[in-house]
Amino acid sequence: MDVQRLSVMIAIDEARAGIEEGATDIHALITESAIGILNAGTYAGVSDRLKSLSWGGEDLAADIGAQSNRDDSGCYTDIFRLARANTILAAAAASVDAVDSVFVDFRDEAGLERECLEAVRDGFTGKMAIHPSQVPVINRIFTPSAEAIEKACRIVDLFESSGPDAGVMSLDGKMVDQPHLKLAKRILGRARDAGLDV
User: Fold this and answer.
1) 99: β partners
2) 100 DSSP β-pair partners
3) What domains sit in the chain, N to C, each tagged with a CATH number?
4) Which positions ≥6 away from 129 have C-beta within 8 Å?
5) Nearest in space to 94 (alpha carbons), one of 49, 129, 59, 57
6) What is the pLDDT of residues 31-86, one digit of tens each?
7) pLDDT (tens digit, 9 = 90+) per residue, 149-168?
């Protein structure tokens, strides 16, 4: 409901400013409170402006009274892993991008890189930065590699040459099917979003 109201408010401002309606996107941070996590599944179809969902652990910790959102080893505790997982699922249900939370220790580049790699593994398409120095690391890791792009292109080409009803096929001795095609298209979309010619 908040995204719908925001979308209407933006439309009014776009009209006043002479901007084409729908030109302004919404990127929603959905886990700043307990109610935000509980409502994570309500974003599907709320607005064409909605382009991504993200999560955050700092405000959520304050809302629920947690002293920290990480354990002694630096891993998120259960509530915050739940918030992270709900964000990925909510974004998938809404057919929008999932953007991972900030990594607050901007001096720890190795920690940032590790968390970015985990986020890519789990299905996030980007990560918020808390400091400009983090942007090159984030961009490098979330931009698909040449190898990933080449494999994705081969999967798409394989299915295109086999027709729209293609089922399970073989690529390099391994089975590929519709989920692999869907992932390949997402990888190529991320590459295009990063400005790569694919």
Assistant:
1) 54, 126
2) 127
3) 2-101 (3.20.20.60), 146-193 (no CATH)
4) 102, 135, 138
5) 49
6) 889 999 999 999 999 999 999 999 988 899 999 999 999 999 989 999 999 999 99
7) 999 999 999 998 887 677 78
